[in-house]
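An example makes the point: we let one protein speak, the chain in one-letter code, the fold tokenised, and here it is:
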Amino acid sequence: VQLVESGGGLVQPGGSLRLSCAASGFTFSTYAMTWYRQAPGKERELVATITSSGGSTNYADSAKGRFTISRDNAKNTVYLQMNSLKPEDTAVYYCNARLTGWWGQGTQVTVSS
């Protein structure tokens, strides 16, 4: 199993980023997928979840209205579109196949002027 996140970087407040997570080694289309984040000195927190079909999504309150999780089962990839970014969104972002111990290595997102 492999989960590889990409798309992080440095962005100014108010900016946008699109994270990607490419999955392999398992039947991607049968798993709900999640994005988590971990800021320095804080616990890892759930950001967004999407069902296996992509038909339903859920967001942390901090992400609602600004972030959008989506997936392309043909490409075995899950995305996180992040808009109106704030400094408090600074963290390492990880994707996870829900209810598994499968994690990617993370991608750093830094929101700063």
User: Anything to note?
Assistant: The chain has a mean pLDDT of 97. The longest strand covers residues 17-24. Strands lie at 2-6, 9-11, 17-24, 33-38, 45-50, 57-59, 67-72, 77-82, 91-97, 107-111.
